[in-house]
Design brief:
The structure is a single chain. This protein has a single domain, classed as Rossmann fold (3-Layer(aba) Sandwich), CATH 3.40.50. It has five helices and ten strands; from the N terminus they run ββαβαβαβαβαββββ. The chain has helices at 27-37, 55-62, 75-87, 102-111, 130-139; strands at residues 2-3, 13-14, 45-48, 67-72, 94-99, 116-121, 143-154, 162-163, 166-174, 177-184. Helix 4 packs parallel to helix 5 (130-139).
Length: 188
């Protein structure tokens, strides 16, 4: 059972989608992620492009994000996200849920001029979508100038140091998992 780790909804239980298609981010990885993101969260606009249960985005909401956008293409995931969102109905902040392919959703956000402070990317570990989605976030200018992309991936899968105008600034290994942090490349 996944729980909110900290913030206004600490301890709140979250349900996971039925089946084996979703791999929830473990508590240790979430704790490390949010310890690193802590200074960036208050008032931020947070996108989880492969939301699963919505636990990452709802954790961000609990810790002060102003807007959380949760995207997943799975009907089971969207059902779980909506139930988890309802359990946090007294949360301050705005939650938007989209049942859509991540790449299609990103293109739509770009067309609408939507920008995010933090974009979290965690497709299935064997997915070929890491590089295309990170590149899309960078080239479509979905990040605010000081925004951040975080990719959770298997530690043996190396992601590029630079991609789509973004550069990896940090990589943290937690057991078999890795978090790669990207920001807009500095010019000059």
């Amino acid at each position: 059972m996944t729980r909110i780790l900290a913030g206004g909804h600490k301890g709140r239980r979250l349900m996971a989608p039925a089946g084996l298609a979703t791999r929830p981010t473990g508590a240790r990885v979430r704790q490390t992620l949010f310890d690193i993101l802590a200074p960036e969260l208050p008032g931020c606009r947070f996108l989880d492009a492969f939301a699963g249960s919505g636990a990452i985005g709802l954790e961000a909401l609990s810790r002060g994000a102003a807007r959380v956008v949760l995207v997943d293409s799975s009907a089971a995931a969207i059902t779980a996200i909506r139930e988890n969102q309802a359990a946090l109905k007294d949360a301050t902040g705005d939650v938007r849920v989209h049942r859509q392919d991540a790449q299609v959703a990103l293109a739509a956000f770009a067309d609408q001029g939507v920008r995010f402070d933090i974009v979290f990317i965690d497709p299935p570990y064997e997915s070929p979508l890491y590089e295309p989605v990170i590149e899309q976030v960078g080239t479509m200018r979905l990040l605010e100038a000081d925004g951040l992309v975080v990719a959770e991936h298997f530690h043996k899968r190396l992601l590029p140091e630079t991609i789509g105008g973004l550069e990896r600034r940090r990589m943290v290994k937690i057991g078999d998992h890795c978090l790669s942090f990207y920001r807009v490349q500095k010019r000059g």
